[in-house]
TrEMBL record:
Pfam families: GerE, Response_reg. The keyword NADP does not apply. Residues 146-211 form the HTH luxR-type domain. Keywords: DNA-binding, Phosphoprotein. This is DNA-binding NarL/FixJ family response regulator. PANTHER family: TWO-COMPONENT RESPONSE REGULATOR.
Amino acid sequence: MAEQIRLVIVDDHAIVRQGLRSILEREPGIEVVGEAATAEEALDLVAATRPHIVLLDLKLSAGSDVEGLALCGRLTARAPAPGVLVVTTFLDQRLVLEAIHQGARGYVLKDVDAVALVAAIRAVRRGESAFDSHSAAVVVRSLHAPAPATTDLTAREREVLALLARGLSNEAIGRELFISATTAKFHVHNLLRKLSVSRRAEAVYAGSKLGLI
């Protein structure tokens, strides 16, 4: 018998989860082993069911794409890591590239047809990448775009950098900005990457030299 692909659906809208489940459960060789609406539910469910694939929407209950991106990174850092296929309504170069950076194997929009979605799931399971035509075009454009300046920080990243300069932990940063510690950690990770450093103290030093703080 062919392998049964075990799959988890993560989306904060129940009707979307139910719609995806109804489509995929009709497909031979695919088994939906669970659904989750939040990042914490997803982490618990993946630990319990050990799926091969996670279908992940970037906009979760907090209404922020950052939470979905952070969850993607946490899922792909596990061993064994599921293949993450982003299924979302948002097409934005930053989101597509950051999802890839966080370990996603594919990125498709929710208006994809069922045949293409199933093909993407099977491709990810084979260890391949899977992008619909829109997100693939974004990736190709990014390859020809000039590298972003190291000072190209978002307003939130500048806030986090200022709090790093005060020596705050991820938990303390979260309390200051009314975000979770996980989201704070995600922003810190992006800062280190954009400033081409590996330590928090180095980020503060680099930021001060660039006049960011």
